[in-house]
Amino acid sequence: MFDFGIKDIIDILIVAVMLYYLYRLMKNSGSLSLFYGVLAFTVIWVVASEILDMRLTGTILDKFMGIGLIILVILFQDQLKRFLIDIGSHGHLRNVLKIFKHDKNNDNSKHHAQVMAVVYACMSMSKSKTGALIVFQRKMPLTDYEKTGDEIDANINVRLIENIFFKNSPLHDGAMIIAGGRIAAAGCILPVSHDMNIPKNLGLRHRAALGMSQATDAVCVIVSEETGNISVAKDGSIKIKVTPIDLEHIISAIDF
Predict the structure, then answer these.
(1) The dihedral of CA 121, 125, 126, 132: what is its sign?
(2) Residues 166 and 206: beta-carbon distance below 8 Å
(3) In whole angstroms, what is the distance from residue 234 CA to residue 135 CA?
């Protein structure tokens, strides 16, 4: 008779959680088909080595599993880094500590002013069809990406944002990174997404924003140079034609 206890339930739950996070990781990186391949290979491995007790096949598959895990780590090192940072972050602790801060109203007022500065700048650039790409840092540090551009370290204001993305500006084609409540850098180079499901009418800025949202937990705001439409890339997906009101809500929810 098959003995099934609490330990087995916990074992199944652990595997289920691992599969869920692996599924989410693959989905955000645009490699969902790879997830199904890994899952099918794992099922065959378990059936051959554990259920049917096929020693030779099980041994061969064991070797492939070891090599396969190393290959997956190499291919998805950025996504794994993001996942581990997300687990080890103290975002919830920071939110609790904010309750006890005496200057909470001042912080909220400052944050709102920074949000509106970005929104107004995007509205202005949208009307003039000035291309822009603004990246908001969240939990995951973006220091490596900041180093690809020029350090700014300035307060967030409308005129500075518009001047950085002005068509004759040398920083126009790169991305601006906002971190720690300040404009950290501009002219930064971002990883480009190779997702085949991206609409063909979207340009390099949109692909870079989507790639950044897949590699990190950052939120990216794009202003199209061709149409003037505002888009937002977040958590491996992109939303097109975002209204100023929606943009305000999205940015307000970011703890930058």
Answers:
(1) negative
(2) no
(3) 10
φ, ψ of residue 150 to 5 degrees: the values are -105, 135
Report CA 183 to chain centroid distance, whole Å: 19
* Interatomic CA distance for residues 29 and 38, integer angstroms: 15
Q: What is the 3-state secondary structure (H, E, C) of 133-173?
A: EEEECCCCCCHHHHCCCEEEEECCCHHHHHHHCCCCCCCCC
For the chain, 256 residues long, the average pLDDT of each consecutive 10-residue run is 71 80 66 70 74 74 72 67 59 47 66 95 95 94 93 95 91 93 95 81 91 91 95 92 95 89
Q: Both tokens of residue 36? A: 């199904």
Write the CB contacts of 228 (distance below 8 Å, at least 6 apart in sequence): 125, 126, 127, 128, 129
Is the pTM higher than 0.85? The answer reads no
